[in-house]
Write a structure and sequence with these properties.
The complex is a heterodimer. Chain A is of the alpha+beta class. Chain A has helices at about 5-15, 25-30, 35-50, 80-90, 120-135, 160-165, and strands at about 50-60, 70-75, 95-100, 110-115, 140-150. Chain B has five helices and six strands. In chain B, β3 and β4 form a beta hairpin. Classes of the chains: A alpha+beta, B alpha+beta. The interface between A and B is large, with 78 and 82 residues.
């Protein structure tokens, strides 16, 4: 889908979040000079095309009582990483699963998964069980718990007005 | 600190993690499926956002689809410089989140921008301003992006 400048303006305006207004798409349109029906059409098209994965809420895990946030990284042979990624990506414990490049010698891991839980012991037990269940227990892995969160906000995309000024 | 949530708050979070309608009165539509009124849904979302339970109420973009780029970056930061380096990193609006993690590579953040070029600029500036190397690990392949948890 080719995006117009208007689409980019909408993408940028939406990065600030959907207005808490009974007609949020009308309010959003007023910020970017589009009418409500055009905003709705654009958002429907972007959702259909997968540019927007979904609209809705993104939570802060910690505030919901998920105090243990683990990045679990795996060193899987390149020939097997596709299958391992599909398995872990489909596991109920995993909220994100990506293949990423290794950075040897400091960083040999090529598969990244996120697992959240109420506490560290529960998360470690869940990871152990998952590794066994998915047939991946023999691969080297590490669990990197978060110690502090410095920043958590949405990614910001789109041509922003202040950037054009 | 954990915010006290009641059953309705949890229903709102669990439902709206799965999507939000696009239409003229989306709050009314979503509220119906939760079993509350439109006004109550709006008020509760405002409270949840103010309490910091919601990181966002809006879109989850797939940046690749419009030429955007994001990457996961790690740094090895000496303990005594940690807060200063975090301040430099977080000063970029392109940095979406940043966590200290228990590893020799102890700072992990996401850089998201409209182009790979802009991501590279941010990484170059971070290295210049901190004097520390960055480990840039853009995704090679995506297997699952759910980011949902039961409230």
């Amino acid at each position: 889908m080719e995006l117009s400048d208007r689409d980019h303006a909408l993408i940028a305006a939406l990065c600030d979040g959907l207005p808490l207004d009974r007609r949020p798409y009308k309010a959003l349109g007023e910020r970017v000079g589009m009418c409500e029906s055009e905003v709705i059409r654009c958002l429907e098209a972007m959702t259909r095309e997968g540019i927007i994965r979904r609209l809705g809420v993104i939570v802060r895990h910690h505030e919901l009582g998920y105090r243990a946030n683990a990045m679990v990284v795996w060193d899987i042979p390149d020939a097997e990483v596709g299958e391992a990624g599909r398995r872990l990506g489909g596991a109920p414990e995993v909220t994100l699963c990506y293949r990423r490049p290794r950075r040897p010698p400091d960083w040999p891991y090529n598969l990244f998964t996120m697992v959240h839980g109420r506490d560290r012991d529960a998360v470690l037990a869940a990871i152990e069980a998952m590794a066994g269940r998915e047939g991946l227990a023999h691969h080297p892995r590490q669990v990197l718990f978060s110690l502090r969160r410095f920043k958590q906000c949405g990614a910001r995309y789109g041509k922003r007005r202040e950037a054009a000024e | 600190m954990t915010t006290r949530l009641d059953a309705i708050d949890r229903a709102i979070i669990n439902t709206l993690q799965g999507g939000f309608p696009i239409g003229e009165r989306p709050f009314a539509e979503a509220a119906r499926s939760i079993g509350i009124g439109e006004g109550e849904l709006i008020e509760r979302l405002a409270s949840l956002r103010a309490a910091g339970v919601l990181s966002r109420f809006g879109p989850m973009y797939n940046a690749d689809r419009f030429g955007g780029h994001n990457t996961l970056v790690a740094m090895r930061v000496p303990e005594e410089r940690f807060d200063d380096v975090a301040a430099v990193v977080n000063s970029f609006p392109e940095v979406a989140h940043n966590y200290a993690r228990a590893h020799a590579l102890n700072m992990w953040f996401v850089v998201a921008a409209d182009s790979r070029d802009r991501v590279d600029q941010v990484l170059t500036e971070v290295q210049e301003r901190t004097g520390l190397p960055v480990y840039d690990m853009p995704k090679v392949r995506e297997f699952h992006v759910g980011l949902r948890v039961e409230a």
